[in-house]
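Dear support,

I submitted the protein below through the web form. The confirmation email said the job was done, but the results page showed an empty box. After a refresh the structure appeared. I'm attaching both so you can tell me whether what I see now is the final result or a partial one.
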Amino acid sequence: MKTKYSLSIGLLSLAVLAGCNSTEQTKKNQVVKSTEAKNNVLAPVAKKVAHEMNIHGSKRVDEYYWMRDDKRKNPEILAHLAAENTYTDAMLKHTEKLQDNLFEELKSRIQKDDDSVPVRRGDFYYSSEMRGDNEYPIYVRSKNFKGDDKQVLLDVNILAKDHEYFQVSGLDVSPNGKIMAYGEDTLSRRVYTLRFKDLKTGKLLADELKGTEGEAVWGNDNKTVYYIKKDLQTLLGFQVYRHTLGSSQDTDELVYEEENKSYYTGISKSKDGSHIYIYHSSPEASGMSLIDANNHKANPVRFIPREAGLEYEVSKLGQWYYVNTNLDAVNFKLMKVHQSKLGNKNNWQEVIPHKEGVKLEDVSLFNDHLVYKVREAGINTVTVRSLKSGKEQQLNFKDKAFAAYLYGNNELDNDSVRLYYTSLTTPGTHYDFNLNSTEPELLKQQKVLGDFNPDNYTSERIFITARDGIKVPVSLVYRTDKFKKDGTNPIYQYGYGSYGHTIQPSFSSARLSLLDRGFVYAIAHIRGSQMLGRPWYNEGKKLTKQNTFNDFVDVTKSLTEQGYGNKKQVFAVGGSAGGLLMGAVINQAPELYQGVAAHVPFVDVVTTMLDETIPLTTNEYDEWGNPNDKPYYDYMLSYSPYDQVSKQAYPNLLVTTGLHDSQVQYFEPAKWVAKLRDYKTNDNKLLFKVDMKAGHGGASGRFKGLKDRALEYAFILDLAGKNKL
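What the results page shows now:
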């Protein structure tokens, strides 16, 4: 961002910024709100240019459509975004010291020298190291778990030193352990360039694969790699290419192209190394194709023909493929099929039957054992089954509500299963559970520096009855000595509720800054997630999406009625599709919230879903519906945050985005803020912060991201009257 846009524009006359072409805007310019007057700065008011859109006999006029610039180079738009940043900085200037203190507070809890737990892959154990004030990891490997002979594979700090943003992805070493592939993104658009490093000489090969998803999967000849190429307009990865080291990308062979734009494409490799997997996935169907990893000329073969509504993924063990599928099983079941009988789902044999109310979430195979994770009533259980005897044993965990993830189980001959465990009061903990005895070996628990003591905090899991009688699970955590169930504590309520993504009750050291100041932290596990299984997701998507918003609002009302928090100090936070949630609830129940933080919010639902040139639009039809069909258009329009902005009082708002966001384009929140500023009838803050260097995930680096968290916390603490340093 050029300096000339970063300061001076924000202090220009609003009439000049708006083009002096609107009587209404000129009148608005003359009304200086009390908070603005104190800070000697006026809010930017965007010009209005009518853009008419017609479909299904419905006419919409978007007065801020002009803010869209796919190339992100329009001087007028950049100036407006810079003016928003200037205004936000001015309005939060009195919190600068608080932001600095919060940043140092958040940073002080993080162990500067920190190593990940080594994960075995082939002949090596791979891990990462963080050192001192480094923002990025150093990737290493060793011949043993203890790391006696560490070899540095990649120091990301060196690669990132000349970049405002830097992200590494998809580190994968060739089967012979000699060459490493990795992707790098320097713009935060999630478009990666793949590079290859000779691990003996430390030098990069000449091969450079541009415009990719950031992952390379190796063939077994150590010179063939498979990767996904993106459509640079839609940012959809849709083509799988085969590359031979030493050749030009121009000569790479296209081995698969996804013609259905509602599907995402992914790649990986079977645990035994025999096959390359191509994943085909959409919100309502999925499938796989297989490529022989030993044949550099092999073509992909469908596991079975794709079917609407059928979802599955496979894992391979010997001559058997295990299939986790929703075939006649809304919450999924496990089947298996012999390699001689592929291609027909009628040949599948049942391994773990479907059980109503129990979602089969994950499966990991070993030579003699099967480990599977299910979720029942929102709680995970992990079971180890002997493939020889059929005997089963459950792993034991101490918390009533927690998150457990199987990870790093790359080898079939492991004698233990690796698991990451956390709860709202338990920092992230890594275990190896013996597959025969199920005895746990504690490998590492994340250290929280300072005076943290988990016994000082209490977590609860409650159910709140929504307006339609459905019980919604809620996870709560608070500092025991600062909580009274008398309606005096401020509440920080978080929600997401889309894509079947479940927000887990996991630990956050940053969250302590709120809990220690008397906040109750609540996660509303609303419909649209899979906290209560796949039906919970189905009841919060497409033509049932309003359930998501109702659940969140009803949780807010009940929490304050039950005395968990002060009804005048409720703060709601969500990002991306959770930002859509924020936009909907402040239109529908603005009086419930003192403040709202909406990060990279998806708020212009109808316009975006009607435009197939916008990244990822077509993949989302099974989530939101296709507005080219009138029933979906009408329903979508009824809750779309941008379209439903009205003349009413709104809560204090902090909206954030990244100029290079690849998931939710910057112009969605930019337009939303402009319209809210025009429509809102009260003096509450409306602040818009744009990271001119970042994208959907915010700033890169482990400490830079804490500045964004400190900004949000300072905004909320200031409103709650807890801004003392």
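Response: this is the final, complete result; the empty box was a page-load delay. Confidence is low (pLDDT under 50) at residues 1-34.
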